[in-house]
Amino acid sequence: MPFIIPSILEQTREGLDDKIFQVTRITGVERVQIDFGDGDFVPHTTLTVNELDPLNPAFQWEAHLMVRAPGNFLDYQIAGFTTIILHYEAFGTEQLLDDAASEIKKLGMKPGVAINPETPVSVLRYFGDTINHFTLLSVHPGAQGNPFLPQTPERVRQLRALLPHVEIEVDGGINQDTLPALKGAGADSYVIGSALYAAKSPQEAYQILCSMV
């Protein structure tokens, strides 16, 4: 089932609470992604998981960890996350990332692996038997509003050919203009930020994007 997933990237408690309030009021939203940045892996530093209030269990919450050191995954379980997306580039070896994914599974959450635009999709072959959620960054990570990279649909096509049965999530620069090519290439889920928050009516913008998948 395809999903349009609102994304939240905020550096202040006030901003985070406001975005959570906005997206959870949108009719039809089931999954929400919160981005975490450490000021090292990406330029911006966000709130940490320990600074969050418990998340509303009526939604599925994804934690996108744009960080060098993820910390204790139990903290994310306690906060209410159901999926933890790890960055391939943040780990020294595939085995270390695989070990982290195993920890996440033991806590009853779903692991995912994200790769930056410069990383070949072929590196994900290593995880094809243990992980079924992969996120392709379609912008340079770290800030909402970065431009969509035109090579992304081809990267989706490559990953779909490499791992036919996994969920392919695309994150960044997605709007009414860029979504059709991603869908045609084989993407399943679409993470949106600016296209939602910059809209006069976030509800209408969400519904339009949902109608396109």
Explain what the structure shows:
This protein is an alpha/beta fold. It has a single domain (3-212), classed as Aldolase class I (TIM Barrel, Alpha-Beta Barrel). Helices cover 31% and strands 21% of the residues. An eight-stranded parallel barrel has the order 1-2-3-4-5-6-7-8, surrounded by four helices. α3 (94-106) links the parallel β4 (83-87) and β5 (110-115). It is globular and about 45 Å long. It starts with a strand and ends with a helix. The mean pLDDT is 94.
Rg over CA atoms: 16 Å
The major beta sheet can be summarized as: 8 strands, parallel, barrel
Strand-and-helix sequence, N→C? EHEEHEHEEHEHEHH
Structural class: alpha/beta
Summarize the topology.
Layout (H helix, E strand, L loop, with lengths): L2 E6 L4 H12 L6 E7 L22 E7 L6 H7 L3 E5 L6 H13 L3 E6 L17 E5 L14 H11 L4 E5 L7 H7 L3 E4 L1 H4 L4 H11 L1
Parallel strand pairs: 1-2, 1-8, 2-3, 3-4, 4-5, 5-6, 6-7, 7-8
Helix pairs in contact: 4-5
Give a quick summary of the entry.
By secondary structure, the protein is α/β, with parallel strands linked by helices.
What tags apply to this protein structure?
213 residues, alpha/beta, TIM Barrel, 8-stranded parallel β-barrel
